[in-house]
Amino acid sequence: MRAQVFTCLGGLLALRAGQPAFHPAGRQRVVECPRAIFGLLRISPDGREQVVCLQNLTAQAQPIEISLAEHGGRRAVDLISRKPIAEGQVALRMKPYQTLWMKLDE
User: Fold this and answer.
1) What is the gyration radius of the CA atoms in the chain, in angstroms?
2) Which pTM does this prediction carry?
3) In the Cβ-directed half-sphere of 105, how many Cα atoms lie within 13 Å?
């Protein structure tokens, strides 16, 4: 079990390290979300890449709606699952304690 957790965490760290928007010199701002969800917009130092990071802070599933256009994108891809999420307005239900990293595309 520990090996599975370590492998999963290692994969997330490698994914994070490969994304310019997570660079320590990049900008970030808080994304307005429901109280149960914490959100940040991470922006690469050159401003070319943006990732909306959402974290469900509760043990219950939580609905969320977010406008990609408000954050500089038209489409989003989930960096963790590598699946397209949506275009325009995103409405989804986050699982308990789920982390979602949405890379924005113009």
Assistant:
1) 14
2) 0.86
3) 9
Residue 85 has what DSSP assignment?
E
Residue keyed to tokens 């979300």? 33
**Cα 50 to chain center, whole Å?**
9
Rounded Cα gap, residues 37 and 26, in angstroms: 22
Q: What is the pLDDT of residues 13-26, one digit of tens each?
A: 777 778 899 999 99
Q: How many domains does the chain fold into?
A: 1
Ranges assigned E (strand) in the chain: 27-30, 37-43, 50-56, 62-67, 75-78, 84-87, 89-94, 99-105
- Residue 7 domain boundaries: 2-105
Percentage of the chain exceeding pLDDT 90: 55
Q: Is the dihedral of CA 12, 94, 41, 29 positive or negative?
A: negative
